[in-house]
């Protein structure tokens, strides 16, 4: 995760006027249309301004940005809100999310650099990718071929952060349509996640149901379960009730770039047999006599 304050050359307590002034200076120096411009640095400064110029996004960056560490969600191509461990929808891009900032404000700054000429912006491009449940939990990388009438065919590597949800969006800055003398559009990647046959995601935790026999509920025991980390043995305590939830620590969803993870919660489903053999009925009758 890059330090946006350092990129703009301002203090973490800088005012909005100071941030805008710093960005205006960098945009003037690095805009690719100017002699000696630097497109990479211009994009970097624009991304920093996109976050720090917005009060809410800046507050979330200040709260979570320092813990994002070395996560590769940025991947050199665009800012990814999941690096901070919060939901894409916090940024208000439709139902998914993405980093948006006041395009008019940016346009005003750039137009002042170019003598009032409004800088054109290329079209945004959208693609879909499908992930397995495990890929969505641990993150992955995908290569997709972009082929649009607005964009020359190219292969793009997409870094998917851990814990992404079905329907969320990843924004890759500057990977959309490119206009000569203008600002490139963005690439929006919509993520589809295939359902897991057993596991469900709830925040940073995973949830599953486990069928156990009546004897296992009464006497306790051990039972193998399949997790995303492989098979493990779950200890079932004696006297387990139907619906009781057992927690397996650290087998949930990763917390951003840290080594911490949520938990796995296993709900006990006590299976009552519909039919009993003569021997089973006799055994139950004996238990009944004992008050069980």
Description:
The chain is 27% helix and 26% strand. It has 292 residues and is of the alpha+beta class. It has two domains: 190 residues, Urease metallochaperone UreE, N-terminal domain (HSP40/DNAj peptide-binding domain), CATH 2.60.260.20; 90 residues, Urease metallochaperone UreE, N-terminal domain (HSP40/DNAj peptide-binding domain, Sandwich), CATH 2.60.260. The strands form four sheets. A four-stranded mixed beta sheet has the order 6-7-11-10. A hairpin with a 2-residue loop joins strand 6 and strand 7. Helix 2 runs antiparallel to helix 3. 27% of the residues are buried. About 13% of the residues have low confidence.
Which H/E pattern describes the elements?
HHHHHEHEEEEEEHEEEEH
Please tell me how large the radius of gyration is: 27 Å
The number of helical runs is 8
Residue-averaged pLDDT: 80
What is the molecular shape?
elongated
Main beta-sheet strand count, sense and barrel state: 4 strands, mixed
Q: How would you summarize the topology of this molecule?
A:
Blueprint: H1 4-8, H2 16-30, H3 39-52, H4 55-64, H5 103-113, E1 125-131, H6 133-138, E2 140-148, E3 151-160, E4 169-172, E5 187-193, E6 200-202, E7 205-213, H7 214-219, E8 221-227, E9 230-236, E10 245-248, E11 264-271, H8 278-289
Parallel strand pairs: 1-5, 7-11
Antiparallel strand pairs: 2-3, 4-5, 6-7, 8-9, 10-11
Helix pairs in contact: 2-3
């Amino acid at each position: 995760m890059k330090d946006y304050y350092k990129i703009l050359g301002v203090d973490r307590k800088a005012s909005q006027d100071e941030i805008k002034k710093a960005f205006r200076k960098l945009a003037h120096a690095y805009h690719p249309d100017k002699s000696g411009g630097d497109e990479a640095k211009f994009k970097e400064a624009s991304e920093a301004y996109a976050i720090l110029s917005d009060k809410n996004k800046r507050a979330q960056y200040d709260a979570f940005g320092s813990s994002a560490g070395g996560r590769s969600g940025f991947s050199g191509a665009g800012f990814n809100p999941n690096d901070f461990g919060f939901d894409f929808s916090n940024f208000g891009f439709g139902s998914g999310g993405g980093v948006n900032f006041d395009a008019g404000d940016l346009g005003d700054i750039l137009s002042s650099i170019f003598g009032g000429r409004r800088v054109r912006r290329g079209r945004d491009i959208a693609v879909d990718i499908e992930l397995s449940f495990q890929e969505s939990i641990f993150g992955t990388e995908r290569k997709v071929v972009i082929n649009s009438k607005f964009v020359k065919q190219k292969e793009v590597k997409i870094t998917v952060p851990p814990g992404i949800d079905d329907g969320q969006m990843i924004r890759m800055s500057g990977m959309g349509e490119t206009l000569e003398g203008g600002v490139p559009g963005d690439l929006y990647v919509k993520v589809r996640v295939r359902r897991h046959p057993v596991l469900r995601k709830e925040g940073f935790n995973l949830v599953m149901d486990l069928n156990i026999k009546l004897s296992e509920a009464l006497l306790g025991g051990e039972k193998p379960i399949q997790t995303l980390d492989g098979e493990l043995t779950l200890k079932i305590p004696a006297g387990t009730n139907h619906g009781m939830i057992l927690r397996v620590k650290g087998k949930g969803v990763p917390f951003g770039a840290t080594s911490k993870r949520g938990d796995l919660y296993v709900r006990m489903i006590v299976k009552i047999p519909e039919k009993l053999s003569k021997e089973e009925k006799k055994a139950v009758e004996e238990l009944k006599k004992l008050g069980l």
